[in-house]
Amino acid sequence: MTTMQVPLLDLTGQYRGIADAVRDAVQEVIEEQRFILGPVVDRFEAEVAAYLGVEHAVGCASGTDALLLGLRALGVERGDEVVTSPFTFFATAGAIHNVGARPVFADIEPAGFNLDPAAAEAAFGERTRVVVPVHLFGQMAEMEAFRALGDRRGVAVLEDAAQAIGARRRLEDGRWITAGTLGDACAFSFFPTKNLGAFGDAGMTVTGDEATAERLRKLRVHGGRQMYHHEEVGYNSRLDALQAAVLSAKLPHLAGWSARRREHAAFYDEALAGLDGVSTPALLPGNESIYNQYTLRVHGGRRDELAAHLRERGVGSSVYYPVPLHMQECFEYLGYREGQFPESERAAREVLSIPVFPELTEAQREHVAASIRGFFGA
Asked: Rounded to the nearest 5 degrees, what angle is found at the Cα of 351, between the Cα atoms of 299 and 254?
């Protein structure tokens, strides 16, 4: 008997639908022979700025660099402290370390997996320069709380929206805000697995402040406005024009792809509702997620058992993330210990992400849900 195959992510179907537009965009770059920055990158930056509703968008080499450049542009210096979540991809804390600052962790709120504003403020110290809320799995953190916190404490807010381009949140007054619009700056990743993915590494930092944007543009080209004249030591983190061309061809489809992910998420929410032993992801009030991941919580210590069961039935899954950052070997010098951030540690033991990519068929998602229900005897 043949088992239906449902990979965690399949980009081939997406490419088939936009192949001509991507090839035309790439061919334009090849014919012009301008591969680093240049007019194609300028155009993509303008398109993203318009899409998000921000003033400035500055492309760079990766999402990791988008964080690093953002920290530098917001004035983080050696010896400063930056508060963030221990339950996120390594790059968030790695960028803080690599600018010479000290990562300071605070626990997450358990429903949405995002940094808890109250816990973050409790972690502030005299040397805190920036707080970095992460919009994990495509759902925005409570940005109005972080904006108020930053203003009240005189601390800059750098959004990590590597997984959340296009995510929105409705405020109590009825206004919608988009990821990237309330922070002093915001970092995005265009890694191929993101909702808007390049054909390699690429990233972008956005801001509403002209001075911050100007510094971002300097920092990505070795710290100078003019070639061979360097006002500070920067980086080689320029956006490749070929990647910008691919991303520009994909951008008009992004809203539709994210809507399709929300349709899959709604199906799973209903199909797995009330199932004993597993919890579907909570959508916080006012939030519109883009579901970069659809992440279950598996209770009773059975997460790895469920993953093996799904694998036997041809269903891909993955654990994002199995080891919280405060328990990583490279951060032992920070002096944290197991048990300090219980919600982050519990999430690391329970989370399991299942297929939610836009091109998922009805038969495939039904197979995923049936496989999960079968594991729990439903």
From this structure: 140
Is there a single domain that holds both residue 245 and residue 257?
no
Domain end, chosen from 251, 278, 295, is at 251
In angstroms, the CA 55 to CA 215 distance is: 14
Residues 199, 26: contact at Cβ < 8 Å? no
Helical ranges in 190-329 per DSSP H: 210-219, 241-250, 254-271, 303-312
For the stretch 320-363, pLDDT in tens is 999 999 999 999 999 999 999 999 999 999 999 999 999 999 99
Q: Could you tell me the end-to-end alpha-carbon distance of the chain, in angstroms, rounded to an integer?
A: 22
351, burial (CB in 10 Å: exposed 0-12, middle 13-18, buried 19+): buried
Say whether pLDDT at 1 is over 50.
no
pTM of the model: 0.96
H/E segment holding residue 353: strand 351-354
